[in-house]
Specification:
136 residues; Nitrilase/N-carbamoyl-D-aminoacid amidohydrolase; two-stranded antiparallel sheet; 18% strand
């Protein structure tokens, strides 16, 4: 789903969705310029995948990614990774909250989406996803 905001169209997803780049292809195809990806990655998967997947989604879509993340030990014994992030369309981490709860702000320049997409016009160059070829 894409929602209109004062900063521009916002693509909405959650947690495990991060692992499916086709979803973000669809959201940017629908006009998203910012992706919201709140999550509760556990510590092992967060350490291994959180930053790299968020940066990849920002780079491949040429968008800002805003990813609020749960942190700490939960009643069921899970430990969540934290590291709420804001990533710019070039893949630079603008904000990393680390492994602590809190509130922080990052400046988002909506014009940066157009500038990055002009430098690397991957979205304009997208082709339809072909059906896989099955070899008997």
């Amino acid at each position: 789903m894409v929602a209109e905001t004062p900063l521009g169209p916002l693509g909405l997803s959650v947690c495990y969705d991060l692992r499916f780049p086709d979803l973000y292809r669809a959201l940017t195809g629908a006009g998203a310029m910012i992706l919201s990806i709140p999550a509760a990655f556990t510590v092992p998967t967060g350490q291994a995948h959180w930053h790299v997947l968020l940066r990849a989604r920002a780079i491949e879509a040429g968008v800002f990614v805003v990813a609020a993340a749960q942190v700490g030990r939960h009643q069921d014994g899970r430990d969540t990774f934290g590291h709420s992030l804001v990533v710019d369309p070039w893949g630079q981490v603008l904000l990393d909250m680390g492994a602590r709860p809190g509130l922080a702000f990052a400046e988002i320049d909506p014009g940066q989406v157009d500038r990055v997409r002009a430098r690397i016009p991957a979205i304009r160059h997208r082709r339809p996803i072909p059906e896989p070829v099955v070899v008997p």
